[in-house]
């Protein structure tokens, strides 16, 4: 139904006529430029060169058996070692007369290497890790603990 008042003359050119599809000139046709990134090296080259430089082509050599994360080695210091188990665990083992020691697996907590910063309480502990620094190993053995290397 036509609106009760006609549009002002300046708006007349912007009025949609019969099925404008994707807003004017012409009709909406399916995919005139191709779908997606089609024509990136042909009819859409200007856009790709301007907004995505280096999108096409190769660089460097391929490395077939690349081992990723070889340098990945998160570390934990001795002063934070006991935070990896609950305080209750530490107290239970401290009271224990049988000489049992708690096992702290730092790999399970997301660390690989134990470093020697800080002091340990005078309580034996078994620490499992992939790597130990020399100082860390000395300090753990000093309190009667043991260092276990894990693969």
Automatic annotation (TrEMBL):
Record-level GO BP terms: translation
An MF annotation (GO) of this entry: structural constituent of ribosome
PROSITE patterns, A to Z: RIBOSOMAL_L15
UniProt entry tagged with the keyword Ribonucleoprotein: yes
Membrane-spanning intervals of the chain: none
Biased composition (Basic residues): 11-33
Coiled coil: none
InterPro entries in UniProt: Ribosomal_uL15 (IPR030878), Ribosomal_uL15/eL18 (IPR021131), Ribosomal_uL15/eL18_sf (IPR036227), Ribosomal_uL15_CS (IPR001196)
Record region (Disordered): 1-40
Biased composition (Pro residues): 1-10
Keyword Ribosomal protein belongs to the record: yes
Domain Large ribosomal subunit protein uL15/eL18, residue spans: 75-148
GO cellular component: a single term: cytosolic large ribosomal subunit
Gene3D superfamilies: 3.100.10.10
Sequence similarity: Belongs to the universal ribosomal protein uL15 family.
PANTHER family: 60S RIBOSOMAL PROTEIN L27A (PTHR11721), LARGE RIBOSOMAL SUBUNIT PROTEIN UL15 (PTHR11721:SF3)
Name of the protein described by the UniProt record: Large ribosomal subunit protein uL15
Source species of the chain: Nothoprocta pentlandii
Gene encoding the protein: Rpl27a
């Amino acid at each position: 139904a036509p609106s009760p008042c006609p549009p002002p003359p300046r708006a007349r050119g912007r009025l949609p006529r019969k099925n404008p599809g994707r807003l004017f000139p012409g009709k909406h046709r399916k995919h005139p430029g191709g779908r997606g990134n089609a024509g990136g090296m042909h009819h859409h080259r200007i856009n790709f060169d301007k907004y995505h430089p280096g999108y096409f082509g190769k660089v460097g050599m391929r490395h077939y058996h690349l081992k990723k994360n070889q340098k990945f080695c998160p570390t934990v210091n001795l002063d934070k070692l006991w935070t990896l188990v609950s305080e209750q665990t530490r107290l239970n083992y401290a009271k224990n007369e049988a000489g049992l020691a708690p096992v702290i697996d730092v790999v399970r907590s997301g660390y690989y290497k134990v470093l020697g910063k800080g002091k340990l309480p005078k309580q034996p502990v078994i620490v499992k890790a992939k790597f130990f620094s020399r100082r860390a190993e000395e300090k753990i053995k000093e309190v009667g603990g043991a260092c276990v290397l894990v693969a």
